[in-house]
Amino acid sequence: MRYSCSVKASAVLLVSLCAAGSIGSLRAALPPPRESAELAAQYEAVSRPQFVQGRELLSLLSIEPGDVVLDLGCGTGRLAEYTAKLVGPHGKVIGIDPSPYRIAIAKRRERSGLSFEVAGSDDLSSFASGSFDRVYLNYVFHWIENKAEALREIYRILKPGGRLGISTGLKSGQPSRVRELIRESIREVLGNVPPNLFLSPFRMTRKELRDLAERAGFRIVDLRVFPLSDYAKDPNEVIAFLSASSSGRFLSGVGDAERQRIIASLKEKLSRLETGRGIEMEHPAIFLVGEKPR
Ligand SMILES: C[S@@+](CC[C@H](N)C(=O)[O-])C[C@H]1O[C@@H](n2cnc3c(N)ncnc32)[C@H](O)[C@@H]1O
């Protein structure tokens, strides 16, 4: 079977990288994004959980009128548009995202004091040192491979006294019901659950996130787990959410026929979770607010 071959190859790679002591290189195992205009539009339609989490994050960041804010990994720009209202006519919000499709949607929201560009955490060199009052990453950090380098750069572009806000997926030993079903469906079709087929490998525990931010020089102002749950209206919306939120990585790397079988099995299982409110999806996140010392 096509997949089991690649699983064997990954296992060999894993063993050789471990033996070479270069476990960090394993992170290259994150599949590349599979973006399209359609997926970006889908993200705009199903990203209510990220928006709810984002508003909560902003409430911890104490954004003030006149602030200059960077929304790093802004997606289709919905939260940045909300932030622009908080900073008012004398403030400025810039949203950046590596996906040109998402930025194309975000650009429809542009107006005075709100702008968007295609860029990612790997190159913030176009921003001058000490130029932002606030930088936030809402549900983005678990997609970033080189987190230490990203934090170093964010530290540089923040003003002294400026604040960093992160909401990111919690690494937890307790998978949600929906995640259990995904695992079951994958196992049914492939016989095992290869890594990185449906979850980012870069999720963190509270301690890992705290240590990383402190190492970058931030003083921790707030660190908490935010246990959001939300309802998708039906199995199709759950699958759209998983695909769009992962930039098309959900089940990428599986052949088309197997993917279709996994999705059919998953839809059937998800339909058993339907209630009058829809299907409950849990999105446990960690929130961190850090300050660059004055
Ligand atoms: C789950 S979406 C969150 C989007 C937005 N922050 C929101 O609240 O709706 C994750 C976003 O992170 C972006 N992303 C992935 N890797 C990134 C990186 N290295 N730097 C900046 N953004 C990145 C993706 O393109 C995607 O739009």
Automatic annotation (TrEMBL):
Signal peptide: 1-28
GO biological process, one term: methylation
One Pfam family, short name: Methyltransf_11
Residue span, Methyltransferase type domain: 70-164
Keyword tags: Methyltransferase, Signal, Transferase
Hydrolase as UniProt keyword: no
Molecular function terms from GO: demethylmenaquinone methyltransferase activity; S-adenosylmethionine-dependent methyltransferase activity
InterPro entries hit by this protein: Methyltransf_11, Methyltransf_Superfamily, SAM-dependent_MTases_sf
Enzyme class of the recorded protein, top EC level: transferase
EC number in record: 2.1.1.163
Gene3D superfamilies: Vaccinia Virus protein VP39
CDD domains assigned to the protein according to its UniProt record, in alphabetical order: AdoMet_MTases
Listed name of the protein: Demethylmenaquinone methyltransferase
Source organism (scientific name): Methylacidimicrobium cyclopophantes
